[in-house]
């Protein structure tokens, strides 16, 4: 076998278009071309602007949790653009005269990459990024417990995403959906490299996520500011704690199931081959043993975000803190008890179905409680509808509809009639778009100043909200309707004339979502351009409540000049009520921060090389990549000179500088919050 | 959603009842959220401002109690629904038996000892039917929406589904809802519910030898040949279930590597769509 394994000329994206020209192969070649040209354009831009060096020294080698978080979010946004574009292409396919302009296989590749990307390379990096930025700041920590491992997780996730992007250029992706059930994804029915792309891109990112989970959990356990009890933590930190536990336990079944599938495919094992004593049902079982807790990995951090945004913009303490915490814990525990509801139709006994159906409904209780808690937080508040608050309110309203259909689907007899239908597709988009994306968008709009020192443009933010909201209803309410008429999911085209008007509405909705995404890109562009007038150097631009707002914006690399004293659940609110505009320092001491290092990037690079080699069965290169990965980790482990010191004096200077900025910042009214008068530290009680 | 049989009717009734049971808990949110947003808005809102109000025992009791009560009700209903409509439980005395084998992209129906059919399911009216379901090749999901919900058809596995046919003759269709490759949109079959006399006549229709079916079934991706065949020997379905490879080489599922099948499937799709332009496809359920 050649050193290049199974790779051949036909795998290059442009070749099939010349051997078999059609609109379908043309679109595939175009998509590959966008990836290649996009990568080239970025390289040219970096070279022309001379940004290679700052990119390397400020970002690629960074171990700062905030910057790592930002890179995660940038990754998520890039992949989100691809995911939404794929959705628009699929919607266009279904409204064009059957059989449409895509082959069934090409359409299948699209829904498979759409699902895989949205879950693993949009949702996961997005929430991991937000947690990275916010959680250490909320518990009074200076960084993650394991900053190096944090960067390794990041570069493994980017490696996974890069593989999915590479599948546009080299070879194919799989066609069996994001769940990739065998035997369809076995070597016999899916002989090309598509499923291997799925296995190894997920392999990289699921290891990254497991490591992130460990990192978050240990950080919360070990790095909280002295005096901060678990029940003093913000709800977002609680959400992170529960998410981290889920990440640690839930990612492993996926890693194992996908590696078993890899052994089936490439090493002649028969874990999932019925004729050789294997059982495909076990794949579904293990996949959803991961997949259901995963749903709550996705949604809990967003719940945490809403629990921060809503009190701030209601100008009010959060309602029912204890209730919210216990509801979060309950959801985390229950999320491990319901996975069978993903395959009620697999022919198990009625008792088993009934028990798992009812278990599923129990999750509705704490979730419902949370929704009412948010509403009661707004009750008797003074609501300011910033972009973040609009996304949060839009979430409450829209999420309920998904909740209703969720309880309906949890009844196995209803599931028999709606499983594998567009009703189901509408349901989970109804949970994930408001329940995850809206939360993450709110988080970005809310916490953006912490990372960059300026606010995001509100006008374009609000436009993006309305476009997303209307787009969501347009795109998915029709799917509920035709799902109930019996339209199955994953169809390349429908011949049923009754579906057509609904599909047109869904198409318009998808375009509206695309416009919302465009508005967000414009929002970032406009904000960067006007950053001088949007600067909030004094910090706390929204009269916030968490201790992260006691810091200046952008937050310095060491986060806190002194670790804050935790006198209550909301020490920053206490300080502001006492008329202070800067938290009193505790004790200035020398601290150690990890030095920037290119090692995590290199680890990610060779791991990606290893995975790519595994996909195309280049065994020699794979072996080299695998060994190199561990050698790099070992070299780093023996490196003793990895910290640099920030002296107490520097910290004191930082503190004094922040104090001077605060003192020179004029006080303004909350009504001017979204104007250029806002230079940070608005305080309701002062005016 | 216009069901033809009691099982599908039951599913629809449950769907509606669950929707209604969710209203007491969801309407307060759907109405309350915009109302609170209006009433407590900073500029122009009329609501009283109370920045430290953050706990109320009464509200906690109502929220947790209401959610739990709703859960208990829908949980109780679920238990009843699931036990009452277990697809493994016969819907009447001595149901008629039909053995089902799903493959890429066609369905074989065996009426034991009587006839074997491809992509055509004929059932007598107002009769309980029990399907034994298996598959060759990829996993499929056997679904006749207007008669009953779906159950997976899996190679090496046997599953069951029970239903009662409509009271009067009717025509509908069934399909596979689990994506299984290039001709997935064509993976469907006609369902004719007919009178007992018509059904007896159907069993008497001329048939082709089963050996011909077995040979063609293995080779063909999409079926366009004859529909009715002699029944196979007793226990044939069980043998296929235990050894799905005997009816499938599975190779037709992936196209880039199977150019000839790709062409056949393209033709089949075109033919199917041509037919659909001239002939009404049957109303939405």
Automatic annotation (TrEMBL), chain A:
Membrane topology: Multi-pass membrane protein
Keyword tags: Cell membrane, Copper, Electron transport, Heme, Iron, Membrane, Metal-binding, Respiratory chain, Transmembrane, Transmembrane helix, Transport
Entry annotated with the keyword Heme: yes
Gene3D superfamilies linked: 1.10.287.70, Cytochrome c oxidase-like, subunit I domain
Major localisation: membrane
Compartments where located: Cell membrane
Location of the Cytochrome oxidase subunit I profile domain: 50-567
Family: Belongs to the heme-copper respiratory oxidase family.
Protein name: Cytochrome ubiquinol oxidase subunit I
From TrEMBL, chain B:
Statement: the UniProt record of this protein carries the keyword Transport: yes
Region of interest (Disordered), ranges: 251-285
Domain Cytochrome oxidase subunit II copper A binding, first and last residues per copy: 93-205
InterPro entries: CcO_II, CcO_II-like_C, Cupredoxin, Cyt_c_oxidase_su2_TM_sf
Regions of compositional bias (Basic and acidic residues) in chain numbering: 258-274
Coiled coil: none
Transmembrane regions: 15-37, 57-79
Main localization category: membrane
Compartments where found: Membrane
Gene3D superfamilies registered for this protein in UniProt: 1.10.287.90, Cupredoxins - blue copper proteins
One Pfam match: COX2
Bilayer topology annotation: Multi-pass membrane protein
Superkingdom classification of source: Bacteria
Residue ranges with Polar residues bias: 275-285
Keywords: Electron transport, Membrane, Transmembrane, Transmembrane helix, Transport
Family: Belongs to the cytochrome c oxidase subunit 2 family.
Name of this protein: Cytochrome oxidase subunit II copper A binding domain-containing protein
């Amino acid at each position: 076998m050649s050193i290049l394994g199974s790779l051949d000329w036909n795998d290059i994206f442009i070749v099939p278009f010349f051997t078999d020209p059609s609109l379908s192969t043309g679109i595939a070649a175009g998509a590959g071309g966008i990836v290649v040209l996009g990568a080239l354009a970025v390289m040219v831009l970096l070279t022309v602007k001379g940004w290679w060096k700052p990119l390397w020294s400020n970002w690629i080698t960074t171990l700062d949790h905030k910057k790592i978080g930002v890179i995660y979010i940038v990754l998520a946004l890039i992949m989100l653009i691809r995911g939404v574009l794929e959705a628009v292409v699929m919607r266009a396919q279904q409204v064009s005269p059957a059989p449409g302009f895509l082959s069934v296989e090409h359409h299948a590749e699209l829904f498979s990459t759409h699902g895989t990307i949205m879950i693993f390379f949009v949702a996961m990096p997005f929430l991991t990024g937000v947690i990275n930025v916010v959680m250490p700041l909320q518990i009074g920590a200076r960084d993650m417990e394991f900053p190096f491992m944090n960067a390794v997780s990041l570069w493994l996730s980017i490696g996974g995403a890069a593989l999915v992007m590479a599948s546009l250029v080299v070879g194919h992706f799989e066609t069996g959906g994001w769940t990739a059930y065998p035997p369809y994804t076995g070597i016999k029915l899916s002989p090309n490299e598509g499923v291997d792309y799925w296995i190894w891109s997920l392999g990289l990112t699921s290891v990254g996520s497991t490591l992130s989970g460990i990192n978050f959990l240990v950080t919360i356990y070990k790095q909280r500011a002295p005096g901060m009890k678990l029940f003093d933590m913000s709800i977002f930190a609680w959400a992170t704690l529960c998410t981290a536990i889920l990440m640690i336990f839930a990612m492993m079944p996926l890693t194992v199931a996908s590696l078993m599938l890899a052994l089936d495919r490439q090493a002649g094992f028969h874990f999932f081959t019925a004729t050789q004593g294997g059982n495909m049902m076990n794949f579904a079982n293990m996949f959803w043993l991961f997949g259901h807790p995963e749903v709550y990995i996705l949604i809990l951090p967003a719940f945490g975000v809403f629990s921060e945004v809503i009190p701030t913009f209601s100008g009010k303490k959060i309602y029912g803190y204890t209730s919210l915490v216990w509801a979060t814990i309950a959801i985390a525990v229950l999320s491990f008890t319901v996975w069978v509801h993903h395959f009620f139709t697999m022919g198990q006994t009625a008792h088993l179905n009934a028990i798992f159906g009812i278990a599923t409904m129990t999750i509705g209780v704490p979730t419902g409680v949370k929704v009412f808690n948010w509403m009661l937080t707004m009750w008797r508040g003074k609501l300011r509808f910033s972009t973040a608050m609009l996304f949060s309110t839009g979430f409450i309203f829209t999420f309920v509809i998904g909740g209703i259909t969720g309880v309906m689907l949890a009844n196995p007899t209803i599931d028999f009639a709606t499983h594998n239908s567009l009703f189901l597709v509408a349901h989970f988009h109804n949970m994930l778009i408001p329940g995850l994306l809206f939360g993450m968008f709110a988080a970005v709009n809310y916490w953006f100043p912490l990372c960059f020192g300026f606010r995001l443009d509100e006008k374009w933010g609000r436009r993006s909200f309305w476009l997303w909201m209307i787009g969501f209803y347009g795109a998915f309410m029709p799917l509920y309707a035709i799902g109930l008429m019996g339209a199955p999911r994953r169809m390349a085209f429908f011949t049923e004339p009754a579906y057509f008007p609904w599909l047109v509405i869904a198409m318009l909705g998808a375009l509206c979502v695309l416009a919302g995404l465009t508005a967000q890109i414009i929002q970032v562009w406009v904000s960067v351009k006007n950053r001088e007038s949007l600067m909030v150097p004094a910090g706390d631009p929204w009269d916030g409540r968490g201790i992260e707002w006691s810091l200046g914006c952008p937050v310095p690399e060491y986060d806190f000049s002194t670790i804050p004293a935790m006198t209550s659940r909301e020490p920053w609110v206490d300080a502001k009520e006492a008329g202070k505009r800067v938290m009193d320092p505790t004790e200035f001491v020398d601290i150690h921060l990890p030095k920037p290092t290119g090692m995590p990037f290199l680890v990610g690079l060779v791991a990606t090389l290893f995975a790519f080699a595994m996909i195309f069965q280049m065994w020699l290169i794979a072996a080299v990549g695998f060994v190199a990965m561990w050698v790099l980790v070992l070299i780093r482990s023996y490196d003793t000179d990895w910290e640099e010191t920030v002296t107490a004096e520097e910290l004191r200077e930082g503190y004094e500088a922040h104090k001077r900025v605060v003192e020179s910042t004029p006080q303004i009214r909350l009504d001017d919050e979204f104007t250029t008068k806002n230079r940070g530290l608005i305080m309701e009680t002062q005016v | 959603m216009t069901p033809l049989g009691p099982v599908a009717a039951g599913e629809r009734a449950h769907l509606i009842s669950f929707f209604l049971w969710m209203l007491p808990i969801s309407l307060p949110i759907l109405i309350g959220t915009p109302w609170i947003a209006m009433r407590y808005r900073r500029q122009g809102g009329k609501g009283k401002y109370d920045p430290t109000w953050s706990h109320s025992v009464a509200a906690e009791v109502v929220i947790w109690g209401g959610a739990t009560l709703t859960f208990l009700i829908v949980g109780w209903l679920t238990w009843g629904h699931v036990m009452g409509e277990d697809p493994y439980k016969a819907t009447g005395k001595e149901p008629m038996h039909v053995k089902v084998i799903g493959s890429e992209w066609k369905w074989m129906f065996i009426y034991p000892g009587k006839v074997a059919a491809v992509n055509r399911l004929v059932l007598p009216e107002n009769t309980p039917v029990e399907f034994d379901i298996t598959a060759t090749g990829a996993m499929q999901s056997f679904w006749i929406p207007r008669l009953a919900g779906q159950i997976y058809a899996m190679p090496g596995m046997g599953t069951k589904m029970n239903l009662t046919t409509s009271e009067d003759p009717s025509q509908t269709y069934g399909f596979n809802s689990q994506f299984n490759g290039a001709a997935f949109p064509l993976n469907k079959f006609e369902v004719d519910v007919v009178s007992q006399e018509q059904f007896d006549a159907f069993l008497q229709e001329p048939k082709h030898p089963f050996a011909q079916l077995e040979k063609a079934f293995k080779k063909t991706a999409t079926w366009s040949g004859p529909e009715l065949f002699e029944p196979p020997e007793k226990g044939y379905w069980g043998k296929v279930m235990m050894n799905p490879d005997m009816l499938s080489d599975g190779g037709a599922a992936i196209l880039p590597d199977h150019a000839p099948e790709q062409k056949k499937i393209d033709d089949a799709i075109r033919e199917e769509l041509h037919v659909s332009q001239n002939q009404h496809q049957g109303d939405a359920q």
